[in-house]
């Protein structure tokens, strides 16, 4: 079976609707056809300062959310990145193959570092995408389900795979980004020109927040001064975002929704979407609590996932170390 790898950072108390619709929903369905490796990427998380206890808690909380969304630990390897030492090890080798300028062109790095003083920007934040490439290449992944914002990191990963293969002989599968068509970028409800992210809490639907709060945020979503409910990203980004979310959560097409809401007001759309979201998150939150109530079981699942992951990652790393000319330790 072809392979999938993807990862998510444990840097918030909850995943948000952008994470789910842009990536995690695909993680779940791809289990049908792929051999999947899914990681909570704690090494990536510490590229910016984290509170240690909070990081530990959020790592378990992330795993619990992934299980509740339908990641099946019997079919897929669900693991914590720091449990698999090969990630950091391969990352070093790939860093030595990455140009300084090449890494400097990553727009996520440019955006994130522009917001901080130079001495507060860690070298880890700079090499972040190379570690991401290592995550992917260790598992010989064919496909990587991610949102639009990860496209450039996937392009770097492909370049590094090809560079290594042509210098040392075929070692890595060159992966494809798997980016959903209609939900590749979910926008902030308060600022429909920006992607939904943890930085503007008012416009973000968090899967773990009180569903009443989510419904309220949807009711106060920024729209436009027209009255027509029509999908038009250019002129009606707010309404289009709400329609995209509605469509993705219910399986109804955008066209169907436009017809259903013909002649009705924005308030109706917002109220109904609020109900759809409440219906989705209520059972989800219950399941997350179930997993968190049994931390020993959760840790066992993660231990098993790391073992599965290491079987594959260790073999790739052995091959890489051999190819670059390291002496095999005996
Ligand atoms: P992270 O943790 O920021 O986000 C996890 C996933 O959610 C997607 N996403 C979105 N999709 C649509 N609309 C949005 N508003 C939105 N916000 C976030 C992201 O594209 C991502 O797929 N660098 C990665 C983590 C990572 C990784 C990897 C991913 C580390 N190693 C290997 C794939 C393969 C990140 O920061 O994702």
UniProtKB/TrEMBL annotation:
It is found in: Cytoplasm. Its main location: cytoplasm. A motif ('KMSKS' region) lies at residues 195-199. It catalyses: tRNA(Trp) + L-tryptophan + ATP = L-tryptophyl-tRNA(Trp) + AMP + diphosphate + H(+). Its EC number is 6.1.1.2. L-tryptophan binds at residue 135. Keywords: Aminoacyl-tRNA synthetase, ATP-binding, Cytoplasm, Ligase, Nucleotide-binding, Protein biosynthesis. ATP binds at residues 9-11, 18-19, 147-149, 186, 195-199. Transmembrane segments: none annotated. GO terms for molecular function: tryptophan-tRNA ligase activity. The keyword Aminoacyl-tRNA synthetase applies. It holds the Pfam family tRNA-synt_1b. Homodimer. HAMAP family: Trp_tRNA_synth_B. Catalyzes the attachment of tryptophan to tRNA(Trp). Belongs to the class-I aminoacyl-tRNA synthetase family. This is Tryptophan--tRNA ligase. It comes from Saccharopolyspora griseoalba. The gene is trpS.
């Amino acid at each position: 079976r072809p392979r999938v790898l993807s990862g998510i950072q444990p840097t918030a108390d909850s995943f948000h609707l952008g994470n789910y619709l842009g990536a995690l929903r695909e993680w779940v369905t791809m289990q049908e056809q792929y051999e999947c490796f899914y990681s909570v990427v704690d090494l990536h998380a510490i590229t910016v300062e984290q509170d240690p206890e909070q990081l530990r808690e959020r790592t378990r909380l992330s795993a619990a959310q992934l299980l509740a969304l339908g990641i099946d630990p019997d079919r897929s390897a669900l693991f914590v990145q720091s449990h698999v030492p090969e990630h950091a090890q391969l990352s070093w080798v790939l860093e030595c193959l990455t140009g300084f300028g090449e890494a400097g062109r990553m727009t996520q790095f440019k955006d994130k570092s522009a917001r901080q003083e130079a001495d507060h920007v860690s070298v880890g934040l700079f090499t972040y995408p190379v570690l991401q490439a290592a995550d992917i290449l260790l598992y010989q992944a064919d496909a990587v389900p991610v949102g639009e914002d990860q496209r450039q990191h996937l392009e770097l990963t492909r370049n590094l795979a090809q560079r290594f293969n042509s210098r040392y002989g075929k070692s890595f599968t060159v992966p494809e980004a798997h980016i959903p068509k209609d939900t590749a970028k979910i926008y902030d409800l308060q600022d429909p020109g920006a992607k939904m992210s943890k930085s503007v809490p008012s416009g973000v639907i968090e899967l773990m927040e009180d569903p009443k709060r989510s419904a309220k945020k949807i009711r106060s979503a920024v729209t436009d001064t027209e009255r027509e409910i029509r999908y038009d990203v250019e002129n009606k980004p707010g309404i289009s975002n709400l329609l995209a979310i509605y469509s993705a959560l219910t399986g109804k097409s955008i066209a169907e929704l436009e017809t259903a809401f013909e002649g009705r007001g924005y308030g109706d759309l917002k109220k109904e979407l609020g109900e759809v979201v409440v219906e989705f998150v209520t059972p989800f939150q219950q399941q997350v609590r179930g997993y968190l109530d049994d931390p020993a079981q959760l840790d066992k699942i993660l231990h098993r996932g790391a073992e599965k992951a290491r079987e594959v990652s260790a073999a790739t790393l052995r091959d890489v170390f051999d190819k670059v000319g390291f002496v095999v330790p005996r």
